[in-house]
Structure formats: structure tokens, C-alpha cells
């Protein structure tokens, strides 16, 4: 149980609570990926690299812009950390907090993984299947314990034979930190 507050409730507390919140990132204004175009590209791709990541280990690999990366847990559910960086600018990296704020805790098909400020643009898009922080989707505490089995993870990089019409890398959003706290 929490202790009683040591400050008095402001006289205008009810008026403050009645103010409609300001939505800083209206998700309905974000461009959504064309999943049909991505599906069409997956029909004719060339596997250019396959990396097996042993249990309790790590690996790095390059996924050029416009290519696909497929992560496969073939031997059983697996938990792992995913760090994404822009190959040409190591300062631009995956921003899990903003991605979670825009997509929810569990990302899935069609969700975009966003990079950090000042770039704040999609750094990856989930085009097939789902990613979950919970093996088997059960979110039990066992997925982070020492008693759960670990399995290898397969990372595959594919090169599409073409890009969707009009495809281009997302541009940085231009945030320059000139406003806000």
C-alpha cells in the first residue's frame, strides 16, 4: 500500500483532469506499408546469406535497404534481443520505446520498427508473421529464466529481384530538437 500524499490536491485538479489529452503521434497519419507489394516481392527472392546463431550467443549481419531478413526459430521458441542500425550511419538505430508507443507491446504483420531521433523513420517493416516477446505467446515468467531451453536462431537475408514501383528509402523526418522540453 502506498503512503498518503504529502502535498495537497490542487483546487483545479478536476479541471486539469477534464482536459482532453494531446496526441503527439497520431498513428493514423503514419504512412502504412503496402503489404501486397511486399508479398509479391517475396515470390521471387534470392537467398544471399544464412547465419545460424547458437544458443546464448550473438551474431551480426547486413541487410541492405530494400532487402528482406527472415528470423526462424526452427527448433523451438526462442527469446533474443534485436538491435538494428543504419549501415551508413551508426547513430541511427532501432528505437524500441517509440516503436512500442506507436504499435503496441507486441509488433506484428504490417508494423514498422522506427529509428531514434532525429531520424524517426521506419528502419524495418514486418512483412510476414509476427514477433513476440513471449515464446509461444504465453508471456510467462519462464521465458527469461535460467531453466528454459535455448535453441539456435536462423537469420536469412534475401535479395528481391525488383522493388515495388516507386519504392525508395524512407527519408529522415527532419526533427531538429528546436522545440519541446
TrEMBL record:
<feature type="region of interest" description="Disordered">
    <location>
        <begin position="162"/>
        <end position="181"/>
    </location>
</feature>
<dbReference type="InterPro" id="IPR018959">
    <property type="entry name" value="DUF1989"/>
</dbReference>
<dbReference type="Pfam" id="PF09347">
    <property type="entry name" value="DUF1989"/>
</dbReference>
<protein>
    <submittedName>
        <fullName>Urea carboxylase-associated family protein</fullName>
    </submittedName>
</protein>
<feature type="domain" description="DUF1989">
    <location>
        <begin position="52"/>
        <end position="127"/>
    </location>
</feature>
Amino acid at each position: 500500500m502506498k503512503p498518503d500524499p504529502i502535498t495537497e490536491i490542487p483546487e483545479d485538479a478536476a479541471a486539469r483532469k477534464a482536459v482532453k489529452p494531446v496526441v503527439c503521434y497520431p498513428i493514423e497519419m503514419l504512412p502504412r506499408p503496402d503489404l501486397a507489394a511486399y508479398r509479391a516481392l517475396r515470390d521471387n527472392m534470392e537467398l544471399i546469406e544464412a547465419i545460424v546463431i547458437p544458443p546464448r550467443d550473438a551474431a551480426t549481419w547486413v541487410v541492405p535497404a530494400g532487402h528482406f531478413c527472415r528470423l526462424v526459430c526452427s527448433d523451438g521458441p526462442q527469446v533474443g534481443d534485436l538491435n538494428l542500425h543504419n549501415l551508413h550511419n551508426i547513430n541511427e538505430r532501432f528505437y524500441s520505446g517509440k516503436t512500442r508507443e506507436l504499435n503496441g507491446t507486441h509488433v506484428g504483420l504490417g508494423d514498422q520498427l522506427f529509428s531514434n531521433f532525429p531520424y524517426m523513420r521506419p528502419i524495418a517493416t514486418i512483412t510476414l508473421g509476427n514477433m513476440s516477446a513471449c515464446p509461444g505467446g504465453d508471456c510467462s515468467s519462464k521465458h527469461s529464466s535460467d531453466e528454459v531451453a535455448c535453441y539456435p536462431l536462423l537469420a536469412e537475408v534475401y535479395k528481391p529481384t525488383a522493388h515495388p514501383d516507386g519504392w525508395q528509402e524512407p527519408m529522415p523526418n527532419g526533427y531538429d530538437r528546436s522545440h519541446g522540453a
